[in-house]
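Need a sequence for this fold. Nothing fancy.
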């Protein structure tokens, strides 16, 4: 006889909050506020590579699949990851409103499937809310969470690193973001990880030392 598993209401609340944050982002994107250009001289030397639209769009699957994977492996890490993501993303949305940024996109003339995918992305997403890049921010946070629940050199963690890295690079090659946006996204992500996991890491180190003394 299969036992009924109760659904953790906290998990549901967290997922709803993340969905609402996505809705809030879409609303700010529709405002189409173009005031501060984040494009730098270096960005003019970064080529547009239409094929990188694949990893760019894989991001939408990666962050949610990563979230559920972490939930399955370790609920404590799941809540830390979710809380860190919510706070960091909320801060970014506030930045988008207080300091509106935008980027420059190339004209797409191709009719192949990759060019059409880029055009579809451009059409559905205004070139605003550039700095910091949420694609970069959440890729960093998702990979860190996955690496926390996996063993060292685990294939899943290695795969996550490759996916996250390709997504971060794709933000520049698709011209969805500038180099400055990427640096800002990684900076916010790193700070969020350090603050978000501080207590967990502190307790972990304490427990390891305690186990060594007792053994």
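Here you go.
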């Amino acid at each position: 006889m299969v036992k009924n598993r109760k659904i953790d209401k906290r998990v549901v609340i967290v997922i709803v909050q993340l969905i609402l944050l996505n809705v809030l982002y879409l609303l700010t994107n529709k405002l189409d506020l173009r005031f501060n250009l984040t494009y730098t001289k270096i960005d003019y030397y970064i080529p547009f590579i239409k094929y990188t639209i694949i990893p760019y769009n894989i991001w939408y699957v990666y962050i949610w699949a990563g979230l559920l994977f972490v939930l399955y492996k370790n609920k404590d890490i799941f809540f830390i990851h979710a809380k860190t993501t919510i706070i960091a993303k909320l801060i970014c949305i506030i930045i988008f409103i207080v300091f509106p940024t935008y980027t420059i996109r190339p004209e797409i003339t191709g009719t192949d499937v990759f060019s059409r995918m880029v055009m579809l992305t451009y059409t559905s997403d205004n070139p605003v809310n550039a700095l910091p890049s949420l694609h970069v921010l959440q890729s960093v946070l998702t990979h860190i969470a996955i690496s926390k629940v996996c063993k060292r050199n685990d294939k899943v963690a290695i795969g996550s690193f490759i996916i996250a890295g390709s997504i971060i690079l794709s933000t520049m090659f698709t011209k969805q973001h500038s180099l400055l946006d990427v640096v800002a996204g990684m900076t916010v992500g790193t700070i969020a990880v350090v603050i978000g996991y501080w207590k967990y890491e502190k307790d972990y180190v304490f427990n390891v030392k305690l186990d060594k003394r007792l053994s």
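For context: Residues 49-200 form one domain.
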